[in-house]
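Hi! If you just cloned this repository, the fastest way to understand the data is to look at a raw example. We've pasted two of them here, unedited. The first protein comes first, obviously.
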Amino acid sequence: MSLDALNEALGYRARRITRYVSLPAQDASLDDISIVVTRLAQTDIDEMMQQLEALPYVHDVAKPSI
C-alpha cells in the first residue's frame, strides 16, 4: 500500500499520520505497514481501522496495546 493509496483511503484523517513505515513481511508477497497518528479521537482511530480493513488488499489491521 503506497502512501498515496493510504491518503486516498483515509481522507482528511491521513493528515494526522506522522510516521509511515513499509517493510517486507515474512510472506514475500506482502508488506508490513505501520503508521503513527497524532491528535485524533479514539472514534476517529476506530473509523480509520474500519476503513483500512475494508480495503481489498489489506489482510489485517491491528492496534498496538499501549
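Ok, and the second one:
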Amino acid sequence: MKVSLASFRDADREEFDWGTIHWLVSGKLGSSDSMTFGKVIIKVGQANPHHGHSNCDEILHLLSGRLEHSAGDEVLRMEPGDTMSIPKGVVHNAKAVGDEDAVMVIAFSSAHRETIGES
C-alpha cells in the first residue's frame, strides 16, 4: 500500500437523521489495509443508534460540542479534547448534549469494520 491523502471534500459521506459520517480512510476506500478513520457530526439533541463492532476496537476523540456516551452499563460525559477507547464488542452510542453539534474523529483497528446492531 502506498501513502495516500484523503481530502475532506472527497470523503465518502453518509447522512442520517441524527448526523453525518465522513469516511476518510478504510479498506473499502483503498487507503488502508489495517485501519478505518472518519469524522462524525451528531446534531445537537440527537443520538446515533446503539451498536457494537465485532471485529475491531474504536477510538473516539471529541473535537467540539459535548456528548453523553453510553458504553456497556456506563454513561460517560465527554467534553472537547476527551478521547474514549471502546473495546471490540462493547455496545455503545453517543448523544450530543448542550447547545451545539458534537464533532469527533473516530478510528477503528480494522480496515473493514463490522457493525452489529442498529445502523
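That's it. A detail worth noticing about the second one: The radius of gyration is 14 Å.
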